[in-house]
Amino acid sequence: MTTVLTGKIAWVLLVIGWYVIRYPFERRAKRRRVEKSARGRAETIRMLISLCGLGIVPGIVVATGFPSAASYVPSPIQTGLGLLALVFALVLFRLTHKALGKMWSVSLDIREKHELVTKGIYRHVRHPMYTAFWTMALAQALLLPNLVAGLAGLIGFGTLYFLRVGPEEAMMEETFGDEYRTYRARTARLIPGIY
């Protein structure tokens, strides 16, 4: 099996793993009433940009090879690093969903009887879900040896992240006040001890 085929298969498994982890939480979330939401046109656009970068564009590249001019032959080391990033991303993604439990939401929502989650992976990082997605975007760039597919994930998710993290933190501060400010002061945003 070539490194290109290995990377494509791994990327497909990453997408399947993402869906398998998320699906039960999405079903449960629909049963809980939303008290406050920051959804709207801007959030929909951010989500679509991220979906294009992490799903649609790489899906087209995997299925068709288009645009072939942006493709290159990866080294086994690159593909191996992509596999490690894939495993780390899915483990972190699962830990994040497990810690959030009933508080999980696909968007900027405050649920009925919402509690600030500071346990599990959230003891160390305020936004481990975003860390998982950044790692997925990195895995995609390493696994799919195509400059368009690689950059699409980083740009697509990066757009969502940089336009959403500020409003999300403002919403949490408005909802939880000093409890959130104290939590924010003692945790990193994405990487423990760094950022």
Automatic annotation (TrEMBL):
Keywords: Membrane, Transmembrane, Transmembrane helix
Molecular function GO terms recorded: protein C-terminal S-isoprenylcysteine carboxyl O-methyltransferase activity
Lipid bilayer topology: Multi-pass membrane protein
Localization per Swiss-Prot or TrEMBL: Membrane
Broad class of the protein's primary localization: membrane
Domain of life from the UniProt record: Bacteria
InterPro entries the UniProt entry points to: ICMT_MeTrfase (IPR007269), Isoprenylcys_mtase (IPR054851)
Cellular component terms per the entry's GO annotation: membrane
Spans through the membrane: 6-25, 45-66, 72-93, 133-163
Listed NCBIfam families: isopcys_mtase
Name of this chain's protein: Isoprenylcysteine carboxylmethyltransferase family protein
Organism annotation: Jiella flava
Organism placement in taxonomy: Bacteria, Pseudomonadati, Pseudomonadota, Alphaproteobacteria, Hyphomicrobiales
